[in-house]
Amino acid sequence: MKKHLLALASLMFILLLAACGGGTEENKEENKEENTATETKEVIKIGMIPDQNAAELNRSMDDFAADLAEKTGFEVEYVPSVDYAALVTAFERGEIQLAWFGGLTGVQARNAVPEAEAIAQRPIDEKFKSVFIAQSDLDVSSLEDLKGKTFTFGSESSTSGHLMPRYFMTEAGVNPDQDLDGNPNYSGSHDKTYKLVESGAFQAGALNISVWEAAVAEGSVDPDKVKVFYTTPEYYDYNWTVNKMDEETKTKLTEAILSMKAGDNEVMDLLAAEQFIPTNNDNYKAIEEVARELKIIK
Fold this sequence. Notes:
The chain is α/β, with parallel strands linked by helices. The protein is 46% helix and 16% strand. Helix 3 packs parallel to helix 4 (103-112). It is globular, with a radius of gyration of 28 Å. Residues 1-18 form the signal peptide.
């Protein structure tokens, strides 16, 4: 009798272990699947050149990241950059997968990463312009009149705040490094440029036309203190550029950006954009040629 009871108890113990073991394996498998899903979820890190008010830009890009994540199903994270060069460096290192560049920084980034592609821009970026501004009571009406005046560009890496203004000044016979009153200043961003001229720190400067027009419309600059005296011819400028990546990811990002419209996210307001349109690397060859001519890139 005791032998029968012992055998029965042993059998029950074995069955209990088997049941527990089966449950453990099942849980392990479920956890493995969950971990795999987490590990394989695409993370896209995005950036933007800091050419405007930092707080407003960062808030807008966080909102853009959320919208892009919703449209693509990717996890999207905005990574701020301290200056233009830092964003280009992060892109080159593969730390940024998608960036809003100016014409020059886009060329620099794509030269550093040959597989990178410009994918989208605003309609205005096909025919962008810079404006030259001066203190309202200053007697200037042409680029030639800048000789002997104090002057500020934006960032050294800015297309609309430095590269193209320098090019048009040179074409007009004004050498920014020799003909001004002292060396030219570099403010770092477009909003700082008009504020420096408005404050009287510099007599004249050059900046992005869309930032200037937005500042006037919003009352951020006093037109009684600052005037536009020259607007440049058109050129290609800003663009969204994707880093080296697989075609499926690139397509999803491109389609999501091209589907955006006014009101979808705060970046559309920041950039005064109704939509984005397709672009490609070839559109920025003229920018690269000017940059090489001026020895800004080698």
